[in-house]
Amino acid sequence: MAREIAEQPAALARTLSSLRPERAALRKLAEDRRVVLFVARGSSDNAAVYGRYLLEVHAGRASGLAAPSVATHYHADLDLTDALVVSVSQSGETQEIVETQSWAAQRGARTVAVTNDGGSSLANAADVALVTPAGAELAVPATKSYTAQLAAMTILAGALAPEPTALDPVLDRVPGEVERLIETRAGVAEAAERLSSTAEALVSGRGIAFGTALEAALKLEETCLRPVRGLSYADLRHGPIAVVDADHVALLVSAADGPMVSGMTDLAHDLRRRGAAATIGIGGDSGFAGAVDVAVPGPDLPELVAPLGLIVPAQLIVEALARRLGLNPDAPRGLSKVTQTDPAA
Predict the structure, then answer these.
(1) Which residues neighbour 83 within 8 Å (Cβ) at sequence distance 6 or greater?
(2) How many domains does the chain have?
(3) Does a structural domain hold residue 123?
(4) Would 216 be classed as within a structural domain?
(5) pLDDT at residue 334 tops 60
(6) What is the overall mean pLDDT for the chain?
(7) I want to staple 39 with a disulfide (CB 3.0 to 4.6 A). Which of 29, 87, 199, 220 is the partner?
(8) Which one-letter DSSP state was computed for residue 127?
(9) What are the residues whose beta carbons fall under 8 Å from the beta carbon of 8, sequence distance 6 or more?
(10) Of 154, 172, 190, which residue is a domain's last?
(11) Distance separating alpha carbons of residues 264 and 252, to the nearest angstrom
């Protein structure tokens, strides 16, 4: 896992360079489509959450997350002739996702596959395949394949935006920012130490960074065997915040700019007042860093592309925490690299 985290700067640079030429094909494919639907599970679903926000905020395209069981179990007969369906799978072989893409195509959707395997079933059946050249990923927890998927989302959103190349200047900075975060590891050891002090944890973010919060929570669960809730700041405020007490460590993620920073800073102050064991902040601005107990610097990137770097400190924390707990971060208990939702099917 540590080695694959370290490979991310090069993997991101390759992915952005490789996929930029696909923007014209994506734009043509989507030109008469009103809605974009994402199909994914696990880490890929968290990448899709980012894609959904980016398409709506940057490209002005209505987007949503589809439920694969509508296709695979309910066999619903939907009219998808105005939809672009984007299926996201690291392996391209999760049967549920492959079946849902086929179902969508049969109902009039145009299809895009985002996968790390150009020879996969998902890629071969799609109208356009965004193949992320992250390289073989051996550790079960997704790291470089996940950030490569995020890079693919920026290419997709750019293709559907009024100005396809608008994000390119900041995207060019992403590999360097990720490399800096990996090399400095600022705050990582202290954050892992705080998280090791209790099994009770929650993770929160909002907006463009919400997918990052969900991915950080998933990594803590699968790699460190911690029962973790990943919640939007807004959903946390609507009730679940009542569980916070001296046994809880809160991990908060925020971009350095944008409309969500002030709310995440207020949340950090509130969690302190409620007696949380510790608050750990990844990213944010100086006010956010001052509001948490442990400040872990994030990338120097604007909010729209911050998630490509914002997840990296969380990956480093999770890998360090797993080792601290005596766990193998490469092979979490009972998991395999290619997950089938219904293994008996």
Answers:
(1) 33, 34, 35, 36, 37, 104, 108, 109, 110
(2) 2
(3) yes
(4) yes
(5) no
(6) 93
(7) 87
(8) S
(9) 143, 144, 147, 178, 182, 312
(10) 172
(11) 7
